[in-house]
Amino acid sequence: MITPDYVLFLGRKTLWTAVYILLPILGSGLIVGMLVAIFQAITQIHEMTLTFIPKMAIVAFVILLFMPWFLDVLLTYTHEIFNQITLLNR
């Protein structure tokens, strides 16, 4: 039987899984953005591509670097959900 507590548990588990996956991507983009902003403030070079290209490159690199870990987290979450579905049907 599905209870409100179970639905809250699934929602919380889903949100935490999303946070675990997105934290390295967003964190790296934030750090590179701050470094580029400091560089622009020091040199007074305000070129738009200077902010966009490094962030895009680092985010792509982090996604490729952490892809096995992302897949492991998602597969673990999926297995847990499927195991709980079989328990609910009893």
What attributes does this structure have?
90 residues, mainly alpha, 2 helices, 0% strand
Order of helices and strands: HH
Q: Helical segment tally? A: 2
Average pLDDT over all residues: 91
Helix content class: over 70%
Into which percentage range does the β-strand content fall?
under 5%
Number of domains: 1
Net shape: elongated
Radius of gyration equals 20 Å
Distance between the termini: 9 Å
For the report, how would you describe the main beta sheet? none
State the total count of DSSP E strands. 0
Query: Structural class per helix/strand content?
Result: mainly alpha
Low confidence ranges? none
Report what the structure shows.
The chain is mostly helical. It has one domain (4-88). Helix content is 90%, strand content 0%. The protein is built from two helices and no strands. The protein has helices at residues 4-43, 48-88. Helix 1 (4-43) packs antiparallel against helix 2.
Question: Concise description?
Answer:
By secondary structure, this protein is mostly helical. It has helices at 4-43, 48-88. The model has no long low-confidence stretch (mean pLDDT 91).
Structural topology:
Blueprint: H1 4-43, H2 48-88
Helix pairs in contact: 1-2
